[in-house]
């Protein structure tokens, strides 16, 4: 028991720069208190002392703000940072070195008996407010973004964000020529995944579509110019401009230094 407590204290040092000394960790980290009490409750649950285990679990919830069902299985060096509002269901299975932040729910999606809560493999990190629901598996080293809702399996080392949770591509294609940045500047709207660090897969998809539209526009312009050079009478009228002020009710606003009247869908 004392060995596992020492491990827990060392793990806090590794994951929380605010930790100053062992006494502070032992006395002021409710997430650790909840885990230590759970270890006792889990043993009682395994011995068939269900009422006592649930009662002590409820007392621990009142004291720490963390609700861990006695039936849940927790590995070594699990760290619940801040703690308040964390809920871990009965059939949840948590591996070693997992980190959970406040407001995390490891919940079920069914009232049927059996495995109905998630499994978190080693080194998983779940951000504040995230919900991981159902008998799904978070692969080793996976990271769940804050306030995400995850209802499907996540492979090892993947990062998931959004509602519902979507896996972020580890490394977007590099725009060496800076073409996407030029497109975004021209459009006066920067939410098109022009940054390689952009964490939103939807924005990434929009960025790729925008780049495709840009290339198609260039091809049309070249074709129109070639036909005009041959004496044809095409593409003589400009496309209408789009004013971002028309989209105020939708919440879309210019994000660059350009004025909205400079917004032109033609590249």
Give structural notes.
Helix content is 34%, strand content 12%. The protein is an alpha/beta fold and 267 residues long. The chain has two domains: 2-167, Hexapeptide repeat proteins (UDP N-Acetylglucosamine Acyltransferase, domain 1); 179-262, no CATH class. The protein has a six-stranded mixed beta sheet with strand order 3-6-9-12-14-15. Strands 1-4-7-10-13 form a five-stranded parallel beta sheet. It has a four-stranded parallel beta sheet with strand order 2-5-8-11. α3 runs antiparallel to α4. The longest helix has 29 residues, at 201-229. The chain is elongated and about 90 Å long. The protein starts with a helix and ends in a 38-residue tail after the last helix. The relative contact order is 0.07. Residues 187-195 and 254-267 have low confidence and may be disordered.
Question: Any key phrases for this structure?
Answer:
five-stranded parallel beta sheet; UDP N-Acetylglucosamine Acyltransferase, domain 1; 267 residues; six-stranded mixed beta sheet; 6 helices; alpha/beta
Q: How does the helix and strand content classify structurally?
A: alpha/beta
Level-2 CATH architecture of the largest domain:
3 Solenoid
Number of helices: 6
Q: What is the fourth-level CATH superfamily of the largest domain? A: Hexapeptide repeat proteins
| Number of separate domains | 2
User: Sheet with the most strands?
Assistant: 6 strands, mixed
Q: Helix fraction?
A: 25-40%
Uncertain parts: 187-195, 254-267
Distance between the termini: 67 Å
Query: How many distinct beta strands?
Result: 15
CATH level 1 name of the largest domain? Mainly Beta
Order of helices and strands: HHHHEEEEEEEEEEEEEEEHH
Q: Taking all residues together, what is the mean pLDDT?
A: 77
What is the multimeric organization of the chains shown? single chain
CATH topology name of the largest domain, in short, is UDP N-Acetylglucosamine Acyltransferase, domain 1
Strand order of the largest sheet: 3-6-9-12-14-15
Shape: elongated
Q: What would you report as the Rg, rounded to the nearest angstrom?
A: 26 Å
- Range of strand content: 5-15%
